[in-house]
Design goal:
Elements (H helix, E strand, L loop, with lengths): L1 H29 L1 H9 L12 H18 L4 H24 L12 H13 L36
């Protein structure tokens, strides 16, 4: 049981690296055509071409869960669960909290939420495929939290 939990956690953490790598070298590289509308907001539909990347991460998760279950719930199952958990976290943080595609947590005053929103906003200042920052989606450099109450308790952050 402990090993299975560790596999899920390790897979989740590895996905932060995969998200950074995929974003920097694939989304801002050879597959920019799918990611571009996420930056330039040229698409007026609820869905973006960028949503295609959901499949890039959903398919390995599904395959891991399916083949792991077919093999007696071996390590592949728990890797698939870790990828799935990261996908859910990515959806909640990126699409719900940051981009407000769903208005579920629109008034958060949390220091972490403010830091990741600040980092993402800086990233979106670039409308072309160059200048992709070197940070992930859940883990960003500390300087994005510089005005956060957790770092400076007497400074109020403006969104």
């Amino acid at each position: 049981m402990v090993l299975n939990v560790l596999i899920v956690l390790a897979s989740f953490l590895a996905m932060e690296f995969m998200a950074w790598f995929t974003h920097k070298f694939i989304m801002h590289g050879s597959m920019w055509v799918f990611h571009k509308d996420h930056h330039d907001h040229s698409n007026t539909s609820f869905f973006e071409k960028n949503d295609f990347f959901f499949l890039i991460f959903a398919i390995p998760s599904w395959l891991g869960i399916m083949f792991g279950a077919m093999n007696g719930f071996d390590f592949k199952f728990y890797i698939g669960i870790g990828i799935l958990c990261y996908g859910l976290a990515y959806f909640l943080v990126h699409d719900v909290v940051i981009h407000q595609r769903f208005k579920w947590f629109s008034k958060s005053n949390n220091w972490y939420v403010k830091g990741i929103k600040r980092a993402h906003k800086i990233h979106h200042k670039h409308l072309n495929k160059d200048h992709s920052e070197n940070f992930g989606m859940l883990i960003v450099p500390l300087h994005y939290f510089k005005d956060s109450p957790i770092v400076h308790s007497n400074v109020q952050v403006n969104s």
